[in-house]
Amino acid sequence: MKEDGTRLVVFEVNGERWFMPVTDNSLQSEGSAREKAKGPGSVGSPMPGVIVKMNVKVGDEVSEGEAVASLSAMKMESNIPATATGKITRILVNIGDKVEGDDLIMEIE
User: Fold this and answer.
1) CATH code, 54
2) Residue 21 located in a structural domain
């Protein structure tokens, strides 16, 4: 089991090996799960991936739709847009952090 509470499951389909990470809920790890995005001022991850760029810092003013971070998923990089116009009050990730879908990245007030 990895530190983030996942295990790598290996299986074979039509002669091809597949490796899939799955969350192991049978054990409670010392680390905690990330908050999930909810509400209009919450910016969440659109899909699982790795944060590769942060375009803002706490205190910056942003407009709705402005790219606030970049995510690398499946060898493609995509921008994460601001969900509201306002000021960045919290940033919960760093460059290189792995995130799952809907994990809270930052909050805007």
Assistant:
1) 2.40.50.100
2) no
> What tens digit of pLDDT does each residue of 32-80 get?
578 898 888 999 999 999 999 999 999 999 999 999 999 999 889 999 9
Note down the domain range covering 54. 36-108
Closest CA to 3 of 26, 32, 45: 32
Q: How many residues does the chain have?
A: 109
**In terms of Cα–Cα distance, which of 56, 1, 60, 53 is closest to 27?**
1
Helix (H) or strand (E) holding 87: strand 86-91
pTM score, whole prediction:
0.68
To 5 degrees, how large is the angle CA 60–CA 65–CA 69? 60
Question: Alpha-carbon distance 26 to 51, whole Å?
Answer: 28
